[in-house]
Amino acid sequence: MAILNRADSARLFMGAGGPSGSAAPDRSVVEPGGPATEAPAEMTLRQAYDKLVAVSMDATKLGSALGLVAWDESTLMPPHGADYHAKVQAYLADQANQLLTSPEFGQWLSAAEKGQDWSQVEAINLRLWRHDYDKRTKLPPGFVAREAEMASQSQTAWTKARAENNFAIFRPYLEAMVDLARQKARYYGYEVHPLDALMDDLMPGMTVAQCDRLLGAVTPAIVELVRKIKDSKTVIPDNLFGQAVFPKEKQEALAREMTAAIGLDYQGALYMETPRHPMTTTINPGDVRITTRYKENNPLEPALLAALHEAGHAIYSQGIPAEYYGLPVEQDAGMDIQEASSRYFENYIGRSKPFWQYWFPRFQEVFGPTAATISLDDLYRFMNRFNLSVIRLEADEVSYVLHIIIRYEIERDLFGDKIKTEDLPAVWNQKYKDYLGLDVPDDRSGILQDIHWAGGAFGYFPSYAFGSMNAAQLDAALHRDHPDLDQRLASGDFAVPIAWMREHIYKYGRLYPVTELIKLATGEEQDPSYFIRYLTAKYGEIYQL
Question: pTM score, two decimals?
Fold first, then answer.
């Protein structure tokens, strides 16, 4: 998962810096009327733009501090620190929001918008500032602070509820987060569905109608592929490792090696274990932090694969030009492209046979006799086995989409007033029975397995499915441009994927919407059929369909 606080006004992806770009004409503009400020009555277009940059950088510093507090909370914070942490997060988020919604900011923005000859980056910054300013100013004073404080308290309650396997502990906090999200949707405004307004913070322009269409385009093929795999006579054991124990410190060492090999720069990255959900937090251009969890009886899930997933997020952050940091263009185009990066490195690289042709000897070396009886083919088939699990993070690439559909439909119906918060465990469990034929044994394995709703990230889940679809299309284009990619990976040369992603995705930041970015990178419109072809070919070979 990426940064939970992306929708916050003090976004953690914000930071200091600004584009070079060509200078705008030095024509004078009269500052719009409003409260007295220290600015002169007249200023040039350039001066107005520079004021916006300065405020954005100040808000970014607050956002970096907010990121540090949030990261600390998810990794090191003692339980008794939770209440004060929540207040600190509320204060920082509110201060950043006040900077970015002040009357002066609006006046400088209106003044700068009168210019016609901005560079591409500057013009897009102005457009994005306007988009964000108009949204932020729809929220009443204090709302962002209340939301940040409740999100912190809610995530702490989720951690406790999950540890005690008791949804009742979390329920009042979830109800509060849902109520705040409903208020936010009303303040933002929407034409059709409240979730449309919330998803726009995470995947700009995405709507429930589009989600229904895109998920509907792949669901029949997914269901049919599930049926064929179930009918296959090929059986892959659920337990490859028997009673073996894989020490946590060895898992961490191998995860560090792998993530560094695929391109994560550890001079600007920090890797740690978390008792919570694996996540990525970008503090500034030289400080991005990832977390993962471990199971001593399985080094692949979640440790190695989750580390590769989070490294995909961190590599994206490290690939955005540092001079953009602190400006609107510095952010990714949306979580559906951020998740494309993370899902690409987790699945299209990390679960591939060429990747493991290189890493398997190292895997055996690190874990010694524990891994001595396992073959490369055994490992490859095991990590790509069809795994009908109630746990999303343990699911195979095929059934994983059904996990996402379950969560999306719950969100859609919750905000569409078709279900209530108190009904969520029962609705969740029934959908798992209907879609996957599975009985959910308890709250920890069901409604409490994901932290997203605790942090207010409603509408986030579809980005995993769209990220997988986008990753398939990017992977096809990457193989088209580099037909020898598999041979390179098998030899230990991992330079091509990150270089290609930097050139075609990362370097653009938020300059283009996701649909345009995919077209620029691949030469084609967004096409979910690449995802279906990828799954059909991969699982057809594994299960001899």
Answer: 0.89
